Each structure stands twice: as C-alpha cells, then as structure tokens.
Amino acid sequence: MSPDQASAYLAEIAYLLRHQGDGHRARAFTRVASLLLRERPDLAALRSANALESLPGVGSGIARTLAELVDTGRSSYLERLRVDLNQAEHADSAPFEISPLVEMGYRGDLHAHTDWSDGGASVVDMARAAQARGYEYLAVTDHSPRITVVNGLGPERLAAQRRLIDQANEELTGITILQGIEVDINEDGSLDLPDEALAALDVVIASPHVKLRMEPAAMTERMLRAVDHPHVDVIGHPTGRRPGSRAGAQYDFEAVFRCAAERGVVMEIDCDPARMDLSPELARLAASAGCLFSLDSDAHAPDQLLYVDLGIWTARRAGVSQDRIINWLRLAELKEMWQ
Ligand SMILES: [Zn+2]
Ligand SMILES: [Zn+2]
After folding, report:
1. Which of 19, 86, 165, 246 is most deeply buried (CB count within 10 A of its CB)?
2. How far is the centre of ligand 1, averaged over its atoms, from the C-alpha of 209 (Å)?
3. CA-to-CA distance for 328 and 176, rounded, in angstroms?
4. Are strands 176-184 and 137-143 parallel, antiparallel or unpaired?
5. CA of 162 to the centre of ligand 2 (A)
6. Is 112 helix (H, G, I), strand (E, B) or coil?
7. Which is nearest to 200 in space by CA: 155, 169, 167, 242?
8. Cis ω on the peptide bond leading into residue 278 (within 30° of 0)?
9. Interval between CA 189 and ligand 1 midpoint (Å)
C-alpha cells in the first residue's frame, strides 16, 4: 500500500471520528495522514521491521490500523466506523486513492491565510510553499474587518497588501499570487467590505462565520443575497460546520445551490479536516444543481496546503469530476471566467 493510499484511509477515519465527537483521536489520525503524504515512508518495509511505531505520532492504535492496511489493503476499524455512522453504503467504495494533486492537474489553491490576518506565515512564505507543491497560482484570502480578533483587513490594509503582492509577484517566478479576501457574510446577507474594495480584488470568497444558527428561512435569504452579490466568486465553507462540535447553518441548500449555479458562483469544498465543508452529501446536491466547486485548503500555515490532498476524497465520493472543480483551470482560464 502506498503512503498516499494509506493517508486516504486515515483521513477518512479522522473524518468519521470527528463526527463521533472524538476530536482528540481525529487529530492524531489527521497528523499521521499528513505525515504520510509529506514524508512518503516505505510502509511495507516498516511493517516487516515491526517499526511502524517509529513514525512520529504513531502509537499502538494507529500502528495496528497501518499494519492491517499493509497486510490486507483494508481497515476493519474504518469499516466499523462507517457502519456506526451509517456510512455503510459507501463500504464498497474504497477511499479515493490520493495521488499528488498536481500530477492530476490541480493548479492552485484559492483559499489561504497569511500573517496579515490569522495565518502563521508571510505572503511570500505561503507562495513559496505553493510553488514547492508545483502550483501555478495561490490566492491569499485573509479575513475582512468584522472579525477583529483575527485582525481582519479593511480597504486601507488591503491596498497595502496589494502593493506587497505586486512586488512579490515581480520577484517570484513560476507562481502567481492572487489577492483575494475571505469576506464575512453579514446577518442580512450584505458583505463586510464596500463594493469598491471588493472590485479591486482578484477573487472574493464570501463565508458565513457568525450567527450560523439563524432560522433556516432567514438563513436562506442571507445566503441568497450573498450569492447574488455581483463581486462574489466563491462561497467559502458554505455551512460553517465543525463536525463533532458545531452543526453548521441550515438553509434551503437546493435553492441556494441553484441560484449559485445560475450566477456562476462557485461552492467551496473546504478541506480543513476540522471543517470538510461542503460535506460529500451536500457537494452531491450542489453538483446536481449544476454548481462548480473550488477545492481549497483554507491553510493558515504552509504545511496545511496539503489539506487538499487529504480532502479530495469528498469530491470523489460526491461524484464531482475534475472538470467541475475550478482549481484545475489554468490561471488565464480562471481570469477569463472572473472577468
Ligand atoms: Zn472562514
Ligand atoms: Zn479561511
């Protein structure tokens, strides 16, 4: 079993553990899933040397799962979790075989944070990490002002960040940094930045962050208004859920997805393991409504860019093919679409 395949199994186990409310164990599985993708250890060799536990973060439980995967290509633990969480109808479909997304044509991540808001790295460090992964572009999408705890950006700081990004794009070769924003969707569906500020950006992600427990009818109006906004390109983590701890907003998903498809507004599959939003179930509904998707990491640090590798199985399970995911577009195609 390749480290990529094993990583996909561990990522799905982590996903199901979160639904069970076991965030602690979920994080342990996510950490090892990330490690496998990053380091690509020879699992068969480690297994035969009885040395799986020498991998950082691998205790006896995860080692047992890995040993079974190497020996049989299956995980009875995953199969049991699927049954417990009524996901058994998927039991025949093995987790998506992860291969480096770039080899599959993934060209860039459209949702990442930097130290301009609550990210842990500079714009240039994030861009270099994206370049190291072979990307053609990376959108820097920090937060809007309303979220003061994360030092959200208003028009003035956005203009300053634009100057820095322009300069970085002159210095870097092989990667283009797009300037975007993750703008808050206010309770009434308006956005947390003036139109002029949004118009100057390369990509606008509008996300629900607060007041997620509004009445479904009011929430539907709120989301429809955001989708209808002329500057919105993507709806970020469309429910705001945190599996295992926060259910996320309830609204007339079909109506919102249909409106998004009509307007050409893209629905995000946010691959942060703590979010996985849209879920495979809602992504399937969005796909049948005709939506396009953006498969993003929502990275707050360089090594989190690989969340898209961990999350792509949701798209596969939702039946979303690559031609419906805009990260497969070349930069020129993307710009043309958003002209
Ligand atoms: Zn967000
Ligand atoms: Zn974000």
Report:
1. 165
2. 6
3. 15
4. parallel
5. 18
6. strand
7. 155
8. yes
9. 16
Whole-angstrom Cα distance, residue 230 to residue 226?
9
Distance 113 CA to ligand 2 centre (A): 6
pLDDT in tens, the chain (339 residues): 899 899 999 999 999 999 999 999 999 999 999 999 999 999 999 999 999 999 999 999 999 999 999 999 999 999 999 998 877 666 555 555 555 688 889 999 999 999 999 999 999 999 999 999 999 999 999 999 997 778 899 999 999 999 999 999 999 999 999 999 999 999 999 999 999 999 999 999 999 999 999 999 999 999 999 999 999 999 999 999 999 889 999 999 999 999 999 999 999 999 999 999 999 999 999 999 999 999 999 999 999 999 999 888 889 889 999 999 999 999 999 999 987
Contact status, residue 286 vs residue 257, Cβ threshold 8 Å: yes
Distance, in Å, from the CA atom of 269 to the CA atom of 239, rounded to the nearest integer, reads 11
Strand boundaries in the chain, DSSP class E: 108-112, 137-143, 176-184, 203-207, 234-235, 266-270, 293-296
Q: Give Dmax over CA atoms of the chain in angstroms.
A: 62
According to DSSP, residue 265 is labeled P
CA dihedral (141, 142, 143, 145) positive or negative: negative
Nearest to 310 by CA among 28, 36, 25: 36
